[in-house]
């Protein structure tokens, strides 16, 4: 029997590593969005942040409450 005979060729991903990677991506998007957010109305920051998160994590969805809270914190 060859190597493709039914054995699993890749190790099971570590859930902690997956979450750490996702968290790092979200933090990076928030940091990058915050750079240009000073003085911009919160509703504009919400739109930009949402668009940026969707571009980096297209399969992830965040609640409007989360987006609003993050936007309010970075648009000061």
Write a brief structural summary.
It is built from three helices and no strands. With 76 residues, the chain is mainly α. Helix 1 packs antiparallel against helix 2 and helix 2 crosses helix 3.
Summarize the structure in words.
This protein has 76 residues and is mainly alpha-helical. It contains 3 helices and no strands. The mean pLDDT is 87.
Task: Please name the defining characteristics of this protein.
76 residues, 3 helices, single chain, mainly alpha
- Terminal Cα span: 63 Å
Q: Find the count of extended strands (DSSP E, 2+ residues).
A: 0
Q: DSSP helix count?
A: 3
List unreliable stretches of 5+ residues: none
Query: What's the overall geometry?
Result: elongated
> Helical content, roughly?
55-70%
Radius of gyration: 18 Å
Determine the strand fraction and express it as a percent band: under 5%
Largest sheet: none
What class would the helix/strand composition place it in? mainly alpha
Order of helices and strands: HHH
Give the topology, please.
Elements: H1 15-35, H2 42-56, H3 64-74
Helix pairs in contact: 1-2, 2-3
């Amino acid at each position: 029997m060859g190597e493709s005979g039914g054995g699993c060729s890749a190790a099971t991903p570590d859930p902690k590593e997956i979450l750490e990677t996702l968290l790092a991506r979200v933090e990076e998007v928030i940091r990058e969005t915050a750079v240009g957010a000073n003085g911009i109305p919160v509703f504009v920051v919400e739109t930009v942040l949402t668009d940026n998160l969707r571009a980096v994590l297209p399969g992830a969805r965040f609640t409007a409450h989360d987006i609003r809270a993050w936007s309010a914190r970075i648009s000061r």
